[in-house]
Design brief:
Layout: E1 16-19, E2 30-33, E3 36-39, E4 55-57, E5 64-72, E6 79-88, E7 97-104, E8 110-115, E9 122-131, E10 137-146, E11 153-161, H1 165-183
Antiparallel strand pairs: 1-3, 2-5, 3-4, 4-11, 5-10, 6-9, 6-11, 7-8, 7-10
Length: 184
């Protein structure tokens, strides 16, 4: 459901690009606040992207506050699971800490803390469940920390409907029936 969740399009020919707030340069996404850095971490020898080659840093260049958002179609009352990978490092005199904040439709932000005492990026998986409204839903990732002391790398973002428990029971019953038929 998420478009370009690994930030691979467009490819950064030099390996690095600063994308100011209000831009749609990264396919499927709009940058917010002071924007993001869009780059290949391998060019700095700080590791690799979690998926693909490129990531975004929500703590862009020397600014305080950056982010990115995408609007997706949702069904009313359907539960969704937003999954993503966050990372940080202590490269270039950063603290090895960071925060990724997520807001659904401009609601209260949920914070996801990042910690890593090494220069090579350590990726952490996170997820957030929410109910669809039936209207398009805007998912915003942002950071409001000082970019001179923190990194907040984001990669491998995905969104999927969460099956209802009744649907899971029906699926399990169907698999059990198929297994019994196969034994015969």
């Amino acid at each position: 459901m998420i478009v370009n969740g690994s930030f691979e399009v467009p490819h950064q020919p030099s390996g690095y690009g600063y994308v100011a707030g209000g831009s749609n340069v990264i396919t499927g996404w709009t940058t917010v606040l002071n924007g993001v850095e869009h780059f290949d971490p391998a060019i700095y020898s700080i590791g690799t992207a979690h998926d693909g080659n490129q990531v975004v840093d929500l703590a862009p260049t020397t600014f305080t506050g950056g982010g990115i958002e995408q609007t997706v179609a949702t069904v009313a009352a359907q539960q969704y699971r937003l999954s993503f990978w966050g990372g940080t490092s202590n490269y270039a005199n950063r603290t090895g800490t960071g925060v990724i904040k997520v807001s659904i439709d401009g609601g209260a932000a949920q914070s996801f803390n990042l910690n890593n005492a090494n220069a090579v990026i350590a990726w952490q998986g996170f997820s957030l469940d929410f109910a669809g409204t039936g209207n398009p839903t805007t998912i915003t990732f942002f950071n409001d920390e000082d970019a001179n002391t923190h990194f907040a790398f984001l990669d491998d973002v995905s969104l999927a409907p969460v099956p209802e428990p009744f649907t899971l029971v029906l699926a399990a019953a169907g698999l059990a029936t198929a297994a019994r038929r196969r034994k015969r």
